[in-house]
Amino acid sequence: MRHRNTKATLNRPVDQRKALIRSLITALFLSGKVKTTDAKARALVSEVEKLITRVRGKESMNAIRDLKKIIYTEASSKKALEYTQKTNKNSGFTRITKVGHRAGDNALMMQVELISE
Predict the structure, then answer these.
(1) Cα–Cα distance between 28 and 35 in angstroms, integer?
(2) For residues 80 and 10, what is the distance between their CA atoms, to the nearest angstrom?
(3) How far apart (Å, rounded) are the C-alpha atoms in residues 40 and 54?
(4) Phi then psi for 85, rounded to 5 degrees?
(5) Angle between helices 74-86 and 14-31 (to 10 degrees)
(6) pLDDT per position in the chain (117 positions), as tens?
(7) Is 14-114 a domain of CATH 3.90.1030.10?
(8) Is 78 helix (H, G, I), strand (E, B) or coil?
(9) Confidence at residue 7, expressed as pLDDT on a 0 to 100 scale
(10) Angle at Cα 70 formed by Cα 58 and Cα 25, nearest 5°?
(11) Alpha-carbon gap, residue 98 to 109, rounded angstroms
(12) Residue 28's closest CA among 115, 117, 98, 113?
């Protein structure tokens, strides 16, 4: 049963939504931080936390396979693997910070960044 299990639809079909989240994940691991809207940031953090948790306990080869299923570029998957190997936390891998409002439509903008401690 799927009672009360909802995902942010982001006003997109399923394939476009998955592609959007995958590209945001790729950009986050590539640059370390991403600036996006509030709804996209919350969806992104949820997926990144799940991905890091899934990859952390695995052997190197299996972790690379799991990362390549989601992350688009080779460089960002290498950075993601390095990040998962050097962190020793159980959760809280990302941080969301409000950065203001977008000029065009006054949408609330957030910055999502990886915490490196």
Answers:
(1) 9
(2) 25
(3) 21
(4) -80, -30
(5) 70
(6) 989 988 899 999 999 999 999 999 999 999 999 999 999 999 999 999 999 999 998 888 999 999 999 999 999 999 999 999 988 889 999 999 999 999 999 999 999 999 987
(7) yes
(8) helix
(9) 86
(10) 105
(11) 6
(12) 113
Domain ranges of the chain: 14-114
- Which residue type, as a one-letter code, is found at position 83? Y
Identify the pLDDT of residue 12: 96
Residue 15 CA to residue 17 CA, distance in Å, equals 5
Q: What is the pLDDT, as a whole number, of residue 33?
A: 97
Rounded Cα gap, residues 36 and 41, in angstroms? 6
pLDDT at residue 66, as a whole number: 93
Q: How crowded is residue 96: how many other Cβ atoms within 10 Å of its Cβ?
A: 15
Q: How far apart are CA 36 and CA 28, in angstroms?
A: 11
Rounded to two decimals, what is the model's pTM?
0.92
